[in-house]
Fold:
Amino acid sequence: MTDPDPIVEAVFDAVAATAPEIRDALPGRRVESGTENPSGETVLAGDMYADELLAEALGAVDGVGSFVSEERPEAVDVGGAVGEGAYAVAIDPLDGSSNLRSNNAMGTVVGIYDAPLPASGRTLVAAGYVLYGPITTMVVADERGVREEVVERDGDGDDPGVTRSVVDDDLTLPDQPTVYGFGGRVPDWPDAFREYAREIENELKLRYGGAMVGDVNQVVTYGGVFAYPALVDAPDGKLRLSFEANPIAYIVESMGGASSDGSGSILDVEPDGLHDRVPLHVGNEELVDRLESALDE
Ligand code: P6P
Structure:
């Protein structure tokens, strides 16, 4: 078994340490901040709080050279030459924050790149996500494989620590897919995707909650396919390559699944800009292969 990368471990220790604080702050931060992020989306107070907490925690990790956030236009230099021993850590601080008002699942997405961003997903050395569901869990993928952890406060004193308890040290996609979740509106799907969706609807159960992390975790747990596809009026879809698609593709491919932008692995997409969007499809390989065939007809 490969030894853990100490910088990767320190990054996920820092992400885990912020999770209870982010979760505790959510009830009071369901309001809009009055600002927009670089993708032109309304930023909630919860997004800003999570971003600031994670920037501080990750900026203090030795071996992290730059902090890059979906909520910030540019990378923040936090010391160390990225790609020469230091990593760039890309964060979606509060994925699915629109679920805050409806009190549904949301999460934090992490990508650890061994190259300055924007960069190909092939430069990822690890990726993971925190899921704020009924319990707080963290899925971590690195060169050793994929594991699921429960993240809890360690006691309730003035300055409690956090424990990371591995509950599954070898996450793999179930062979038999069960669920699917497709983003966007049916009328906005291109014809080829709509036909693929009709087939899948007749085979699997719908699980779509409006937060990628929650919906992907359904696929991770039960097998199936998640997609936020290209739309007729948005051919690049909605999800960001650096902060959402690459980390999720790295995780699902590490579990024996597949990812696609519609024609090939997400990890092979060469970005132009830090906030590029990309159509994202991930899940069991057979389902992703069928999607690529459907879009190729
Ligand atoms: P829609 C959340 O805003 C997000 O970025 C992803 O977490 C989620 O998959 C998607 O957007 C949901 O988009 O159009 O269904 O609201």
